Recover the amino acids of this structure.
């Protein structure tokens, strides 16, 4: 979601340098987004780390159970929660961006908070269920946003674009259908029962009908990518994005049934690329606004920028644990 909006804002940057960072300063050479090495690190590296941790879990005998505390600390707090706070570098510490849409950036969080309070007052499960499906939508749409950015860098033909978009969505929607078809699972998005339990026979039939479509799309995408590779016009970033998404969503949801497996395959490919995007943007805007808070943070270096995010993530989780969960006295 944020990726598509970022592209639109970069297009508007032609109106004046004070609005947003020049696209060329954040993006690398086409067809890559940030450059070959950084794309491989952010997308391929995060997927490789996810699958490597999954394999490590099997070796250590922890892959079939709940996530150990170190997994929660490093992945959930250190990546998943921290990547949300990195939006500060894209919006809330950029004075020009705040002046551009002040009501949106102030009003949306307040409205979301009010809606959450109203939902929880009605039913705690209704609150968690709405949050779980909103998070699922966000995870799916972020991957689609990366694909849109790749298409902006090197526009494909009409049919190739349709195949790539459809395949990417299938890589995420089919595992979610399988998830719903086999409830309850040993993992949940937030709390057990947050996904709707529908008659199992109907969901199993739907998931079974979707399986050959999912398989056919992957095969078609693979064959078309091989054909384009032979012709020399394959889009390497798109292939990397689709295959890494397919591997992690299938491994964490379809092929396994454990909280550890779901966590390590779910968090990293979502949070790490977004952290890369917001930190790169923050560096560019910080250089343009040296006297701002953003400029001072970025001038202090990447470790300081990351430590600030980790501190905010820790503070948020402290509040959750202190007033809601009360599960991690060893940390909080």
């Amino acid at each position: 979601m944020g990726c598509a909006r970022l592209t639109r804002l970069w297009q508007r940057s032609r109106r004046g340098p004070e609005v947003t960072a020049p696209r060329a300063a954040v993006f690398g050479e086409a067809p890559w987004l940030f450059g070959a090495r950084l794309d491989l690190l952010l997308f391929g590296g995060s997927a490789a780390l996810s699958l490597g941790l999954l394999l490590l879990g099997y070796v250590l005998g922890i892959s079939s159970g709940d996530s150990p505390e170190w997994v929660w600390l490093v992945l959930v707090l250190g990546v998943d929660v921290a990547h949300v706070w990195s939006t500060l570098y894209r919006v809330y510490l950029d004075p020009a961006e705040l002046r551009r849409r002040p009501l949106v950036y102030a009003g949306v969080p307040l409205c979301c908070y009010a809606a959450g309070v109203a939902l929880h007052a009605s039913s705690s499960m209704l609150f968690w269920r709405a949050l779980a499906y909103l998070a699922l939508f966000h995870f799916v749409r972020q991957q689609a946003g990366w694909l849109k950015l790749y298409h902006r860098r090197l526009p494909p033909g009409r049919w190739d674009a349709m195949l790539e978009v459809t395949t990417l969505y299938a890589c995420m929607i089919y595992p979610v259908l399988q998830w719903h078809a086999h409830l309850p699972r040993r993992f949940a998005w937030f709390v057990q029962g947050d996904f709707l339990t529908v008659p199992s026979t109907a969901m199993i039939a739907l998931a079974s009908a979707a399986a050959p479509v999912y398989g056919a799309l992957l095969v078609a995408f693979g064959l078309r990518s091989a054909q384009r590779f032979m012709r020399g016009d394959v889009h390497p970033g798109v292939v990397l994005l689709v295959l890494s998404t397919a591997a992690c969503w299938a491994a964490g949801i379809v092929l396994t049934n454990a909280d550890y497996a779901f966590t390590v395959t779910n968090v990293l490919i979502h949070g790490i690329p977004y952290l890369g995007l917001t930190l790169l943007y923050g560096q560019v805007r910080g250089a343009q606004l040296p006297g701002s808070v953003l400029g001072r943070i970025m001038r202090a270096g990447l470790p300081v920028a990351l430590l600030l995010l980790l501190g905010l993530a820790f503070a948020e989780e402290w509040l959750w644990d202190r007033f809601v969960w009360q599960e991690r006295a060893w940390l909080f």
About this structure: Confidence is low (pLDDT under 50) at residues 1-22. The two ends are 33 Å apart (CA to CA). The longest helix spans residues 200-231. The CA atoms of residues 21 and 284 lie 6 Å apart.
